[in-house]
Design goal:
Helix content of chain B: over 70%
Shape of chain A: elongated
Number of helices of chain B: 12
Structural class of chain A: mainly alpha
Shape of chain B: globular
Number of helices of chain A: 4
Largest sheet of chain B: 2 strands, antiparallel
Oligomer: heterodimer
Radius of gyration of chain B: 19 Å
Helix content of chain A: 55-70%
Largest sheet of chain A: none
Chain lengths: 140, 293
């Protein structure tokens, strides 16, 4: 199928986005599976012992945090030697995927002088960074 | 919050029983969701919140990540084939993302009984929406609205079923942006995958062909749910022991469902799902009202 210049640019961007999404998704699934095996095997002891979870997972998150002393925000990065928080890193990679794909696509929009979509991509990245930063959670 | 009896019975069984049951249920959800053409994300929250011992806070966090992971797996193929369209998805996802952040914060701040009640009403409404709304196969939009023209919301894809190339364009872009903001807000509050609403909004309201609506909906979910998922992660409302078996179960189930698609009566499965959603919605509603704990 022969494409017009605009369509060719769009398809090129779609391909770039797809390539990054594919790579991040596959890495995320592999990491999630590996981290789960580490978590369940006890190779890296979890912060909250597995046997204690049934008494805790029915609590609202605020009471769960109070009873376990589990950290919020990015403080869990200091607990990566714990199996449960190692799994959380793998899970967080899914939430990071869109921002990384947008960051890769943004220079291409700028190179194509597509100001509208470059602005939309920049605004989306900013929004995801605000969400990831935990700033909004301080308002809760 | 579980009652003392529920907590006692929960403690009485080995810890691994519930994650194993979760894997089995999400495997089944993955199978039937593909056959019925309904996103697994919308089934997960009402069913798991209604029939598992996990608090709604953790179920909603898992629901967002489950829907997100599912769309990450399918997204690359849909983008390459042109069924998912980045230009169409980006503005709508931006509106949805901003609203989903607000929704996630409202969801985490609201009392559990109010959330359960609202979830019950929403899930019953979604079941009725899935039951009543029939998608349109038409691709007959002749002219874009001014905003759609500015954003160049047009495209084409090869559709072997239609016998060739399909050119499409959308309209009603300003209303579409508002609708996606509302959908994003509800998704953030309840942790639901929003394919049930995205597809009709893209197809019936904005006039995108059904295949582009389904493909682009997945892409939009992957972006919108990322925003809300961070709020849940930063709040400590994501438990790997709930999220990981769910993701693995629904991914495996989706693959099995895709294989069974040709031989299973989709209409029967669809009716079964609608009935299950009505039951799960009624359960959430009655739980929220303190009638069935």
């Amino acid at each position: 199928m022969e494409l017009k210049p605009d369509e060719a640019q769009d398809q090129q961007l779609q391909d770039i986005y797809a390539r990054w999404l594919d790579a991040i998704g596959k890495a995320g699934f592999t990491a999630t599976l590996a981290a789960l095996l580490v978590y369940l095997s006890g190779a890296m002891p979890p912060f909250v012992p597995l046997a204690e979870l049934p008494a805790l997972w029915g609590l609202p998150v605020g009471r769960y945090l109070a009873q376990t002393g589990a950290p919020t925000g990015w403080a869990w990065l200091g607990l990566l030697e714990r199996g449960d928080f190692l799994s959380l890193v793998a899970i967080a990679s899914f939430a990071a995927a869109s921002a990384l794909c947008y960051l890769r696509a943004l220079p291409a929009f700028i190179a194509h002088r597509d100001r509208t979509y470059a602005s939309i991509a920049a605004a989306q990245v900013a929004l995801l960074l605000v969400a990831a930063s935990g700033v909004l959670n301080r308002l809760l | 919050m579980p009652s003392a009896d529920t907590a006692a019975s929960t403690l009485a069984v080995a810890w691994w029983i519930w994650p194993a049951a979760l894997f089995a249920v999400t495997l089944l959800l993955g199978i039937v969701a593909v056959i019925a053409g309904i996103g697994g994300g919308v089934l997960f929250v009402p069913i798991v919140a209604g029939f598992f011992p996990f608090h709604l806070d953790f179920v909603r966090g898992a629901g967002l990540l489950l829907a997100l992971a599912g769309t990450l797996a399918a997204g690359p193929v849909l983008l390459r084939s042109g069924m998912a369209n980045l230009r169409l998805a980006m503005p709508l996802a931006l509106a949805g993302s901003a609203a989903s952040l607000a929704g996630a914060m409202v969801g985490l701040a609201a009392p559990a009984n109010i959330l359960q009640t609202a979830l019950g009403i929403t899930v019953i409404a979604v079941a009725l929406l899935i039951w009543r709304v029939k998608p349109s196969q038409a691709t007959g939009i002749e002219e874009s609205d001014p905003l759609g023209a500015m954003l160049r919301l047009v495209g084409r894809f090869d559709d072997p079923a239609a016998g060739g190339r399909v050119d499409w364009r959308t309209n009603h872009t300003p209303v579409g942006l508002m609708v996606f903001a509302v959908i994003g807000f509800l998704g953030g509050v309840f942790g639901l995958g929003a394919g049930f609403a995205n597809v009709p909004a893209l197809n019936l309201l904005m006039g995108a062909p059904l295949k582009v609506a389904v493909g682009s909906s997945g892409l939009i979910i992957s972006i919108v749910n990322s925003s809300a998922a961070w709020v849940y992660i930063n709040s400590g409302a994501v438990l790997p022991i709930i999220v990981v078996p769910s993701i693995l179960g629904i991914m495996l189930g989706s693959r099995i469902g895709a294989r069974l698609l040709r031989t299973t009566p989709a209409a029967t499965v669809r009716r079964l799902i609608i009935a299950t959603m009505l039951l799960a919605g009624a359960r959430a509603l009655l739980r929220g009202l303190g009638i069935w704990n």
